[in-house]
Amino acid sequence: MKCSNNPSWVKHRLAMRCLYMLNYLWAAFILIGVVYAAFSGNIDQLTSGALDSSVDAVNLCIRMLGIMCMWTGLMKIAEKSGLIYAMSRGLAPALSKLFPTLPRDGKAMEHISTNMIANILGLGWAATPPGIKAMEELQKLNPDKTRASKEMCMFLIINLSSLQLVTINIIAYRAQYNSVSPQEIIGPGILATLCSTAAGIIFAKIMEKRRNT
Amino acid sequence: MRAMLFVSNIMIPLLFVVIIVYGLLKKVRVYDAFIEGAKDGFSTVLTILPTLIGLMVSIGILRTSGALTALSSLLQPACATIGFPEPALPLTLMRLVSSSASVGLLLDIFKTYGPDSFTGRFVSVMMSSTETIFYTLSIYFVAVKITKTRYTLAGALIANFAGIAASLIITDLVFGR
Question: What ipTM does this complex have?
Answer without folding.
Answer: 0.91
